[in-house]
């Protein structure tokens, strides 16, 4: 199991509680969210999904949190949605599936994309289906050498969900995205890095240390500038040039009101390292 920081004894919860589904610890402005259903390769239940959405929302709003690391316990990062819950029984009314996706998997991916703090995925093992999309929605992706990414939907006769058809073409281009989605073959971590889905592949025993080092660098950065940069990049492929340029100018206008922007200019003039406070 990857050695990530545990919550303090005051915040630890019984193993069968909703809070235990995602371990949560914050240290030196870095929050670590650890999916904690190792017996199911961290497959996502409705309770786990809602807990994760809540944690991302809280991290986004908390000025003391300046970077987030998302990882998993055991052999898997996340095996996708847990399909063993029996929720498919009974009569299905038209609109039920779309509503379930809109209020469920899509909200989860949106919580990552919209989080105002940089999010690092530390992919410790298999990331399949919704689990792969959860990792790829993060701003930076580190993968342990044994990790794999699988667009598993076609194996189940399903259409990709959780934003996959939105994320993958933007990361890979349409042909590569279709190849992964049409065949459902497992993609090794080195191949994912070669294609540009992963920023870096590291030995399994170095994943936690590398993720923490990256998060620590982000946590001392200009947090508001990073949030605005994330927004500009995430929306750039959905806008025309004029709209993108207008958004860039507005982001610069907003950012120039922050203490960190003033500190950045002062440190340059004074020829010293900046001391950003995330404000």
TrEMBL record:
Source organism phylogeny: Bacteria, Bacillati, Actinomycetota, Actinomycetes, Kitasatosporales
InterPro entries given in the database record: ClpP/crotonase-like_dom_sf (IPR029045), Enoyl-CoA_hydra/iso (IPR001753), Enoyl-CoA_hydra_C (IPR014748)
Protein name according to UniProt: Enoyl-CoA hydratase/isomerase family protein
Pfam families listed in its UniProt record: ECH_1
Similarity section: Belongs to the enoyl-CoA hydratase/isomerase family.
Organism listed in the record: Streptomyces galilaeus
